[in-house]
Amino acid sequence: MLYLDGDPPVVYPPAMPRQVSEHVPAAIREEAHDAQRCLVNGIWRPAALMARRALEAACDDKSGGQATGMLAAKLKWLKENALITNRLYEQAEPLRVVGNSAAHGGPEITEDDAITTLEVLRRVLEALYDDEKIGDDVKAKHAYVKKKP
Q1: Alpha helix positions (H), 41-110
Q2: What is residue 6's three-state secondary structure?
Q3: What is the mean pLDDT of the chain?
Q4: In angstroms, rounded to a whole number, what is the distance separating the alpha carbons of residues 24 and 114?
Q5: Residue 14: which of 111, 79, 102, 143 has the closest Cα?
Q6: What would the mean pLDDT of 118-145 be, rounded to a whole number?
Q7: 3-state secondary structure of 129
Q8: Which one of 13, 16, 117, 126 is most buried, by most CB atoms within 10 A?
Q9: Contact 84, 78 (CB under 8 A)
């Protein structure tokens, strides 16, 4: 490929990362998409902040209001109630910390911070919503097979 003036071409709009699953409630999905939009446009602090907002909204949704207080306590509730694994809980902790830094002022949010934050958010949302949907589908299919004569 030949570049004019040695510069690579600029593609607009930038390519979006993999979209959040349709199984995620619309309001949470929109928060996650906002974070993705910020990421692809190179604005790291808002990307991390929106990812944190989506994570907290998912915690509130899945706990049905039973998990209260700070995001750390809500994540712990998800872990203790087997909605996320210990490993995913440990991975979500940096998302929480980076999100807090973005919200309340703190160290600069880097591109790497924003990318990692959104990747962890995607994994948490998949665990909370996609895994549940797949499990329900398998159970329904298994029940149907058992009933067949």
Answers
A1: 44-63, 71-80, 86-104
A2: helix
A3: 84
A4: 21
A5: 111
A6: 77
A7: helix
A8: 117
A9: yes
**CATH 1.20.120.330, domain 21-137, yes or no:** yes
pLDDT per residue over 86-120, tens digit each?
Answer: 999 999 998 889 988 998 888 899 999 999 999 99
How big is the chain by its Cα radius of gyration, in Å? 19
First and final CA of the chain: distance in angstroms?
63
Tokens read off for 109: 């949010």
Q: Which element (helix H / strand E) includes 137?
A: helix 131-147
| Spatial separation of the C-alpha atoms in residues 50 and 65, rounded to whole Å | 21
3-state secondary structure of 7: coil
Q: Would you say 122 and 39 are in contact if contact means Cβ atoms under 8 Å apart? A: no
In this prediction, residue 65 carries a pLDDT of 84
Give the global pTM. Answer: 0.78
The amino acid at residue 106 is G
Contact call for residues 94 and 120 (beta carbons, < 8 A): yes
* Dist CA 52 CA 104 (whole Å): 12
CA angle 69, 71, 72 (to 5 degrees): 95
Q: Are 114 and 12 in contact (CB under 8 A)?
A: no
